[in-house]
Amino acid sequence: MVDMKLVSRKKAVLLSAVSMALLMSACGAGNAGNEAASDKKNADSKIKLKITWAGSQVRHDATLKALDAYSKLHPNIAFEPDYMGFDTYWTKMGTLSAARNLPDILQIDTNNLLEYAQRGQLMELGSDINMADIDPQLAKVGNVGGKQYAVPIGGNAIALQYDKVMFDKLGIKVPDKGFTWDELIQLARDVKPKLEKGKYLLQDMSVGVNQVEIDKYEIYQAAQGKGLANNAEGKFNIDKDTFVKFNELFAELRKEGIVPPIDVTVANKENDPKLDNLLNGTIMVQRGYAASLGAIDGVKPGEFGLMVAPSAKQSGSFLLPAQFFAVSKDSKYAEEAQKFIDWFINDQEAGKILGLSRGPQVSKKVSDALSPTYSDVEKQQVDLIEKAAPIASPFYSRPKGYGSFASEYNKISQQIGFGKITPEQGYDELKKKWEEIVGK
């Protein structure tokens, strides 16, 4: 006979256990839901800084590591990076600029800073960024109309790149302060009889070929105390008498066979192992930049060196940022963006991560701290900038349209080189093109 009381008790215990399990399950679901909601809330509370830049894969990798390091130091900061090569960068930035949708932090350069600042799309930067350890001339380039709109994030200086191996063979010693223009020209004449046919000490600096090469002329004009191609206000500043004299000088050097024939010069293709006239041994000295030494060293390691630009009445050297960081005027997180830029340029750990992926460090403290770790090429780059800094002419950001004008300069300089127009006619044409492209 079944004991009904026992059955009832078993049913009660079973129901109680089931109820408890259901209750615990419900509580568990509730906790999981709360945790998910909390995670979402924390994710949503993070400040997301949009940041964009251009460059090589080496720069991309280094910058991404730096962003990751900063987020670990500041868990409330996340980044939305957008990076690409230079060939597409300014096309995309132009689209974002037109849509008033610039990222919080953007890489900008000397050819675009003036345009974006005058258009009212960049924020005036404040005390959240410490620039005390940046060379004043370098920092000043980010200043437009008395307001700091951009911060250098890599240093650079115009220079002469030269073949150290050939200089050693010829017994040529580079003065610590570089050559004067007269000394350099005389050296090219003295060395010519010692060279094989088709070899030259000096490139023809009067002819522009690749990208922006008006700076070949600028180092001559700056040495005469006449400044660069544009002044602080972005106005045309090419001096006619100096320009004519410069072109007449190199026409004479071509005639004497001291610099390559015009057809050899215009066939030059920068950084191409076979077509670059420095890399293929046609010339031993060319206009270059401190930050670009690594590119040619990668083709022929240890063969090339740097010297400061030639002087005359003064040095032809000038400093310029390799790039800037700027903050969009429409950024909702301007304070956070500026604090990140401050870390990017002033923190030693950031410097270790970035290396010279953007050119030599702009903070002297960071550069001095990291210098024992630099390679020979990197040490040359830093040393050149330090030599140029005390003697450099002022450099000003370029006005809107300068890149297009520089392309016209190349064409006009080649017409002069081929004898199709005179230097005087070339100057008049340059001034006309400036008015059409930049002056408007």
UniProtKB/TrEMBL annotation:
Range of residues in the leader sequence: 1-32
Taxonomic lineage from the root: Bacteria, Bacillati, Bacillota, Bacilli, Bacillales
Gene3D superfamilies (alphabetical): Periplasmic binding protein-like II
Alphabetized UniProt keyword annotations: Signal
InterPro entries: Bact_solute-bd_prot1, SBP
UniProt-recorded name of the protein: ABC transporter substrate-binding protein YesO
